[in-house]
Amino acid sequence: MPHREMPSPAAAAPTYDSRPARRRSSEASAVTAIDxxxxxxxxxxxxxxxxxxxxxxxxxxxxxxxxxxLEAGLRPDLVVxxxxxxxxxGLAWARSNGIPxxxxxxxxxxxxxxxxxxxxxxxxxxxxVVLSGGGDRLDHSISAISALGHPRLAACGSVSALWGDSxxxxxxxxxxxxxxxxxxxxxxxxxxxxxxxxxxxxxxxWPLHDAVIEPGxxxxxxxxxxxxxxxxxxxxGVLTVIVPDHMPVEPRS
Length: 253
What we know:
17% helix, ten-stranded mixed β-sheet, Jelly Rolls
């Protein structure tokens, strides 16, 4: 069915940084192939630590993600979406600064987040990082997080999101990942896209070995790191790992 993302009326309005937006990539917009893509989506103000710790790369703003990127001092290399929620001021800034804008019809079947992720994959991104402040629309949040498990991202070496103050890492099996976490940190494993098998967790209070996690079950919920390095692997399926309260209040020194 046609999809139209509506702006969230309760979200805080972005306030623009008066300084010139800083480019996060090395003339990334002038090349075709990229290694790292940072996708900024709409919703709410970005966490300052997420902005500080996000990698440099080709930055794609999904619709009103442009406003939040500019407020955070990030300079997008590309704007994608139906442009129904981005501000006129932000869009005018992008066009006056020569930022490519890919405009889509409002009655599209893909969300702006999906379109931005597809743009990253089309450009050969091996690492994809989504930046989001969250927002108050539960349906939008679930849709955007679910989009990280789309099959088109399976070939990427790393798919993650810095979501509010949380870290999300999506493992397209077969895949493994090591997380550096504070002792006592809580994390959860979710089978959001179907059955996950061959799940392995080491360095946690409740280790798993060749486990199966079904959608809607609590097998992987609220585990605790007992080692600084926590290893998580999945042999088959798409496993979503969420580390809540991952970001400190201020950027790490």
